[in-house]
């Protein structure tokens, strides 16, 4: 089975990650804590952000596309509400892949548990918003 994917929802979900990240890591929200904990010091040059932003857009598109496909497959298998399937699928994929991998890598890299929680919480919010967008805009 080839999943039916609403690419408008995937594009919106991709763009939503930029908004979530911009708010989450702004200095007045969690940005100052993140910079202090990671040792990152902004250079002040906007050109330094071009490559990380481009990478973020590409990987966010891939994440949204995979999530949309997984939601469609789950919906076909379990039936029921497309929206609820999107939320459950997003949470399960986040827990099984994103959170689990962050926790493993951060433990080996001896990162602080505060940084790990901050980053996996960011990813949860990001994936949930992507799932909401995909869930309210199912394929035709």
Describe this structure in words.
The two termini are 16 Å apart. The protein has one domain. It is 79% helix and 0% strand. It is built from five helices and no strands. The protein has 140 residues and is mainly alpha-helical. The longest helix has 29 residues, at 50-78. It has helices at 7-24, 27-38, 50-78, 82-108, 113-136. Helix 1 runs antiparallel to helix 5 (113-136), helix 3 (50-78) packs across helix 4 and helix 3 (50-78) packs across helix 5.
The helix fraction, in percent, is over 70%
Report the portion of residues in β strands: under 5%
Q: Element order, helices and strands? A: HHHHH
Which radius of gyration do the C-alpha atoms yield? 16 Å
Distance between the termini: 16 Å
Poorly predicted parts: none
Tell me briefly what this model is.
With 140 residues, the chain is mostly helical. The chain contains 5 helices and no strands.
Note the topology.
Layout: H1 7-24, H2 27-38, H3 50-78, H4 82-108, H5 113-136
Helix pairs in contact: 1-3, 1-5, 3-4, 3-5, 4-5
């Amino acid at each position: 089975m080839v999943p039916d994917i609403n690419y408008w929802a995937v594009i919106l979900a991709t763009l939503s990650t930029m908004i979530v990240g911009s708010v989450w890591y702004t200095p007045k929200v969690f940005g100052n804590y993140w910079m202090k904990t990671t040792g990152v010091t902004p250079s002040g040059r906007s050109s330094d952000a071009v490559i990380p932003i481009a990478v973020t857009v590409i990987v966010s598109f891939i994440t949204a596309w995979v999530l949309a496909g997984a939601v469609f497959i789950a919906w076909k298998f379990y039936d029921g509400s497309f929206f609820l399937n999107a939320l459950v699928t997003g949470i399960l994929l986040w827990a099984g892949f994103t959170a689990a991998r962050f926790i493993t890598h951060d433990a080996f890299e001896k990162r602080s548990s505060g940084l790990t929680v901050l980053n996996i919480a960011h990813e949860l919010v990001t994936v949930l918003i992507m799932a909401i967008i995909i869930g309210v805009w199912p394929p035709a």
